[in-house]
Amino acid sequence: MMVDLGSFSDEKFDAKKWINNAVKARHPADALEKHLVDLEMKLQLMSEEISASLEEQSSASILRVPRATRDVIRIRDDAVSLRSSISTILTKIKQAEGSAADSIAALAKVDTVKYRMEAAYKTLQDAAGLTQLSSTVEDVFASGDLPRAAETLASMRHCLSAVGEVAEFANVRKQLEVLEDRLDAMVQPRLMDALSNRKVDVAQEMRGILVRIGRFQSLEVYYTKVHLKSIKQLWDEFESRQRTTKFQTNHSANTNEFQSNHSSVSFSTWLPSFYDELLLCLEQEWKWCMIAFPDDYKTLVPKLLIETMLAVNSSFISRINLATGDAVPETKALAKGTLDLLSGDMPKGKIHSKHLDAMIELHNVTNTFARNIQHLFSESAMQVLLDTMKAVYSPFETFKKKYGQMERTILASEIGKLDLRGAVARGVGAQGIELSETVRRMEESVPQVILLLEAAVERCINFTGGSEADELIVALDDIMLQYISMLNETLKSLRAVCGVDNTSDIIKRDSGSDKKEGTHNPRKADLITNEEEWSMVQGALQILTVADCLTSRSSVFEASLRATLSRLSTSLPVSAFGEDQNQRQLSIDDGNVSVNLAGGAALDMATVRLADAPEKARKLVSLLEQSKDPRFHALPLASHRVSTFEETVNELVYDVLISKVRQRLSDVSRMPIWASAEETSAFPLPSFSSYPQSYITSIGEYLLTLPQQLEPLAEGISSDDANADEAQFFATEWMFKVAEGATAIYVEQLRGIQYITERGAQQLSVDIEYLANVLSALSVPIPSILTTFQTCLSTPKDQLKDLIKSDSTTQLDLPIANLICKMRRVNLDP
């Protein structure tokens, strides 16, 4: 049986567990007592062996201690000796360092003198060489060897840079400049001939000469000069064709023989063909320059296009101006364009959307050309590509800077064409027709205006790529304010049509401020029929549809505008303060704009525009960031005005709906029946009518009929099931509003009664009860004031005092009860 002693060294050794495991490991045939005895014997033997081994090794260790002690003492003596030696060496090194520093300083001075002597020697050599070159340079030029002349001039410049500003060589410096100009002039005809006739070897040789004398810009100038002439001819072809057509037209008019083979071509039709020919020319130059100037073609050909656009820029702007003017007959007849309209040359003329549409059409053609150019110049450096794109779009920049003004003028002109008038006072009986017609025009104008605004947004994206979004927002807000102002002016005229323009006078009479005695003054409303009156009510209710349409349409448009700004924030290649530079084409940091194209992305018109306008880019970024806030209003002023307009509409409609009530109740407090004396009779007949008077029945009939008038409008709102609840709430709200208003006016009139007899009190009680029944039928809560009037007036005069002092006074309005006592001359004092 083997015994594993490894587990005895474990810190968590458990004797019981070890014994149990040893017992489990015994052979089943072995007896337990025998197995344990064997195990105990083996452990005892092993412990004796371990004790003997430990004793033996301890004795050996004790014998080795004296030897180890002697070794330690010897090592310590060696360390002391070594420390002394090192200290001596350090002292010698410090002494040597002091003397070496002086030697090194002396050597440094010697080296400086040597370097200066070598520089002086070299300068003297360059001066001698410069003198020699200056004396022989004329012979080199006379030989006609241009490469040798270039090398000589390069050597002279090198010698001059080595000599520095020495007065003796000032004339040589001037001579060198003259000679470089002279060599440049000698290279020009050969280089231009080589460029014109496609002589690659000669062109490369002349290019090397110019580069050798530091005149690479001359290569760009000569290269551009050679090819610009032919391109300019392509551009001038349009005007020559126009002149030819005009001449032939005039000639045919004089001779009556019109046989011209040419027809007048518009600039928008001709421009694509010009771009095609220009692109073909540039492609050919790109391929040739790749062979002739492999190190320079990426800048030479773009430079040619930049200079071309610079040369035709003013003419291009003029042609765009006239081409946009041709879109509208009035400006075409006067040969005027958009810029003329903006400058005020045509005081009576206004920019039309067709002008801007024509400009966008030309811009789209330029967009196509710009994409082709970018693809052709894709190998060029970013700055070169950016400069090229700026040149391509430069003719339109004048118009883009005035985009906000153009858009505002266009929209203002379109808004001014809306005919919302029709609320002019006409004959009696025609107000309902006038009101209906005006409201119809107002309602139809809302979607028209929204379409105009949506078209403006689309024009902004197409023409500026969204870079003028900030100007667009301001223009849209201003135009909406103009339109809402027109609606408000129309509402003012509708007040006269509806007969509620003198509401303040009515209120004064209702409140008792008009102290004049007499009956109700006839008003215009008294002269119209009941049918006409209800047609006016129905027309006034339709104004609510105008307000609802304006609110919903403007809200949807503003949400759409915010969504457009959100799309621009992801599509426009602008980021502020360098964020997302890997994804953005433009990043703004500390007022600087940097361009970054990743993954072969294309430069768009917005990138080109904003690259040199950090302030505008920062302003645009701020707007786009604000648009992400849910509380952001794209049209802040217009949004507020829309809410105000809705309130104005509600006020007008309420005044119209309540005007009949005001009219019928205007003289209730002064009706003579309240103070009429009781009639004597031999029979016990009632001294008052058991029927309500006509003034209150007419109001009751009006209120009961009003839901029928609200029903068509509610059905118009609830065109689908989703709005059914909203329509029901709308009708109920207005029903309650008119009923409560009528009750308030009636109560105010009742307060104005100075004296009422018993007969008058009984009659007024019947009138109030009738109104209460009407309100109950309409499910309108009856105010406690009206209930108090009805209760106190129906109570006999001699019982009124007891009624007020009884326990039921909790149901009465005490101030009103006291007022009724004064009316009935009941003294409440004991």
TrEMBL record:
Organism whose genome encodes this protein: Spinacia oleracea
Transport among keywords: yes
Pfam families: COG7
Entry similarity comment: Belongs to the COG7 family.
Coiled-coil intervals, chain numbering: 29-56
This protein's UniProt keywords: Coiled coil, Golgi apparatus, Membrane, Protein transport, Transport
GO cellular component, one term: Golgi membrane
Primary localization class, coarse: Golgi
Membrane topology: Peripheral membrane protein
PANTHER family for the chain: CONSERVED OLIGOMERIC GOLGI COMPLEX COMPONENT 7 (PTHR21443), CONSERVED OLIGOMERIC GOLGI COMPLEX SUBUNIT 7 (PTHR21443:SF0)
Matches recorded under InterPro entries: COG7
Locations listed in the record: Golgi apparatus membrane
GO biological process: Golgi organization; intracellular protein transport; retrograde vesicle-mediated transport, Golgi to endoplasmic reticulum
Entry protein name: Conserved oligomeric Golgi complex subunit 7
